[in-house]
Specification:
about 120 residues; 2 domains; Arc Repressor Mutant, subunit A; mainly alpha; 2 strands; single chain; about 5% strand; two-stranded antiparallel ribbon
């Protein structure tokens, strides 16, 4: 069973709350590969958000390889969780190398990452 909620008082946009929580559940193994996700309209109604909010979250999860959309059959948890972890490890290694070249201490580099993660900024901007 999928358990999600949206905090309307949060500075984090609703689509990001949904995307982040589903990604966490997939990566933690709470949602097994092959688990059928609720339809966009159903989840939007359950959470009291616009269908476009859920559609965007699903689209980003699909781009990350965490879910698969199979046309009218719906959306399912994909096998991309392991790939996502591998990509994250590589990105971390690349960042660590860059931080080292820039002369940042480990503490400074971690503080930068923590600040970005806490702010909800996305690396694409």
């Amino acid at each position: 069973m999928i358990t999600l909620s949206v905090d309307t008082a949060s500075k984090v946009p609703p689509f990001e709350q949904v995307r982040g929580e589903l990604a966490r559940q997939i990566n933690d193994g709470e949602l097994a590969v092959g688990t059928k996700l609720p339809t966009v309209r159903r989840l939007a109604a359950d959470l009291g958000v616009a269908p476009n909010t859920i559609a965007r979250a699903y689209r980003e999860l699909e781009e990350a390889g965490l879910i698969e959309t199979r046309g009218r059959a719906g959306s399912f948890v994909g096998a991309g969780g392991d790939e996502s972890r591998s990509r994250a490890r590589q990105a971390a290694a690349d960042y660590a190398e860059t931080a080292h070249r820039l002369g940042l201490s480990a503490g400074e580099a971690l503080a930068i990452v923590s600040a970005v993660l806490d702010s909800g900024d996305d690396a694409k901007t």
